[in-house]
């Protein structure tokens, strides 16, 4: 960025926005996508952003019945520039529900001295430096922390602050040129990517997009799991114990037999890196019916499909072995590997991240994520959507913290990517 806000102004706006956004409780609730959004607080968050987007000057603003807020910052083209790629940014409105308070009480630790951080003196909640070595690189920096009773919400409100500050910066300075910039603020990412799955992509007509949903300064993600879910329902035969011989067919034991068909070393706790797994994630049963829920994950699409085929085979084998029982399989894809959407034409989207970091003297930390982002689903729609860092640490934890200099670097990365896309057109 050759022009624009100075570091002090950028830091102040980002910090103020972040505190304002985390002040809106917007936890999502897992419900299998039966209601999107799953909580009222996400509506509150979306309406706040809708108002702020109007004030900044975004057009084509639309808040859908599923609380997906989309809009566009119109292109500002310089002399002799006829066009530039349209790019998008997607961030999620919800914070995760991990049985902590939905209300965030945060404070800033000024010039962190390297010692323990008292989060909540009244409740004696302390983040001990000896137990959190991830604090060490941030000595001397200002850190935003929780009061120990909630997550902080950097995931993903640091991204929202980032995007909104970037939009405001661009709209406020006539010397900053760019193509059309689309935004999508979506609900219920934390409980199944249900917001992005309910996007109207005609309102997001971009060449490529970005999520800002990773952690440490410099993290870059363009490889995620292929992910799916399988629910196996087993109908047994119930009988009174006094006359059960030859009649009773216990669905709970059949569920155990089914789960024992899987490799006990091909599970989340036994795998790492790009190793996939099948996770027997939940079992519910009674005298008549048992239900086994499986999560299927693999970076490699062929291996992912093999795992799905294996589940089908095991269900068929069980049905043949126990003909008096009835087995039902409901299997669906949840999201895909971002990398599978990569082509020669759109690959520049990833290159821009690394070019921006080089310009900003940020050391990239490329990660094959053992999980997924909204971009993992959006990419399945043919819109390559890689991911980069918010700067936040210890997501989904009361010990979450956000180093303000890392938040600033994240926003500078956003602004630099936008500039590089424009200059490269």
From TrEMBL:
Enumerate the cofactors the protein uses: Zn(2+)
Transmembrane spans: none
Cite the binding residues for Zn(2+) 2.
155, 190, 396
Q: What does the record give as the active site?
A: 94, 189 (proton acceptor)
Looking up Gene3D superfamilies in the UniProt record yields: 3.30.70.360, Zn peptidases
- What Enzyme Commission number(s) apply to this enzyme? 3.4.11.4
Superkingdom of the organism of origin: Bacteria
The residues that the entry says bind Zn(2+) 1 are 92, 155, 213
Q: Which InterPro entries match?
A: ArgE/DapE_CS, Bact_exopeptidase_dim_dom, Peptidase_M20, Peptidase_M20_dimer, Peptidase_M20B
In its UniProt entry, what is this protein called?
A: Peptidase T
The source organism is Megasphaera micronuciformis F0359
What lineage is on file?
A: Bacteria, Bacillati, Bacillota, Negativicutes, Veillonellales
